[in-house]
Protein 1
Amino acid sequence: MIKLERVEYKYNEGTPMEAEALHEVSLEIHDGEFIGLIGHTGSGKSTLIQHLNGLMRATGGDIRYNGESIYKEGFSMRDLRSRVGLVFQYPEHQLFEIDVFTDVCFGPKNQGLPREEIEERAREALSLVGIGESYYKKSPFELSGGEKRRVAIAGVLAMKPEVLILDEPTAGLDPKGRDEILGQVARLHKERGMTIILVSHSMEDVAKYVDRIMVMNHGRLVFNDTPRAVFSHYKELEEMGLAAPQVTYIAHALKEAGFPMETDVITVAEAEEAILCTLAMEEER
């Protein structure tokens, strides 16, 4: 669906302030994938995702969407941005309309759609994120943090994107709000087959939800593999200012203390299963 070929980006190119943000990044994003994108602050994550829907233009390399270069003459960036939806960090700061329903209608309205379709899309999008009709006429500013975040995501979903990019969607939320947001995103992926790219600093969230992890470091793509394979490099991740999920460290500590369990666990559920399995084997001996 999306293919990057040796993509580079330099801020203030050709000036004394020139700084390289992306260095020869090559990757592919396939239809229906759930991808996690991680990296320390300044690693190039935000710059990268803004290239995926053309908000930023690469200073080198090429980006293809469904086999077509997004930089070729005549390519519609407007169409690309309706197909590749980007939800920025703290998206509730972008809420501005008089009520929830009107706010979610804003995107499809700008697509020039008939009123009936605009409203149908808004209703569907709000339903997808768990916002019922009782909220439609409420001011967005009356809602809780998690509800605001869901309304903002609905505003992007109303444009019916094929790819949904979420930049730290749980930032600043309490545990309940975080679980609600990620649960809704996971359902979108499972029930709609939507391609999801989740940018996150939470290794636990990434380990729990995604199928593949891409790791950025100083503008370079350094790992691009399954969560288990990526987190097996936890010492290298630590050198980049990252880490593995906490449960992985617990498993290693138990192993070093003499408890004979597998150490490649990345979620609490996996750790529980590994511990119970080990205990059962020990009882049989």
Note: The longest helix spans residues 175-192.
Protein 2
Amino acid sequence: MNKFALTFGILTVVLINACKKKEDSTEITAVQRTFSGRIDLDRLHSYAGQSRPAYITLDNSGANPISDKGATLGRVLFYDKQLSVNNNISCASCHLQQYAFSDTSVVSKGVNGTTGRHSMRLVNNRFSQEMKYFWNERANSLEEQTTMPIQDHNEMGYSGENGDPDINDLIAKLSQIDYYKELFKFVYGSEEITEVKMQNALSHFVRSIQSFDSKYDLGRSSVGADGPPFPNFTQQENMGKNLFLAAPVFDNQGKRTGGGLGCQGCHRAPEFGIDPNTKNNGIINSLAGGFDLFNTKSPGLRDLVGKDGNPNGPMMHTGQFKDLKTLIGHYGNIVVGPNNNNLDPRLTPNGFGQQLQLNQTEVDAVIAFLKTLTGTNVYIDEKWSNPF
């Protein structure tokens, strides 16, 4: 073999090996850019571009509007059990997609026992005037709320108290995980993890969870207002809608003599979120014993029940109501507790606890209407599902 042939042969081997290494490198990069086979960073789900009906006008995103990248990171954080001290609890442990991101337990289980109140549904969180969070409104924004369960001793355990590690320990833990290095760089341009970045991403994901494909939405779109009869509703459902929307008429002792039930006063259509000026609703007992007087927030009423017609978990901060009939019955006869100085005045007409004097036909009609607020897609859409 001459010198030229030997040199050519060596170059050929080098080129083949170089091409092989390049192929291997491309293959590794492609694997790295796909999270657990469920999230492809080159083909993100649409979170920011979701459509909504023209009559839905509220949006509490403020200075932190949804982005596809942010919500993608938020989805991973929401479902990741490594955000708890024992790697057993995630946000999704208490907010399950199959129940409209509610919990079927009266109180949710955390790393050190149970929480103090029933977990709220998260559907349509974005479409409300209410800017405060938790039942007692102790968080001033959704962003602030998102990491408070993480820093709670009972819930996820990074409290920095009672011998717990703190949020900085969690950040150090997550910083060692390869997919967070990739995702934080993908979203923020840097692998650096901060609490604010986590809060923003989690808020993007939570605000993206929406439900506007219900029987109510079909009817509302067809007539252009809430008042007229919806052509796709039964007579009973239209009756329930009217009772929900119309204000009641009371006598001087708080007994209803006409009109509707006044539900609209606190749960405003068409979003059905809670009026931010609402005070407590007469449920003043505490799961820990004693009184819980300052509960003023509630989740919206959309997807209060599932597609099977049963509630998506127990209701109220105590989880004490398991069915809609009992729930409506509470409002039908408000008892003013001697210690309750925070009862919403809309429930005490003329200074008396309201007595709606409901008949069975009215109860059944309101229940039928509430069931029309349930959608379909929120329970099955992959973009809100567990990516692990």
Note: The longest helix spans residues 3-32.
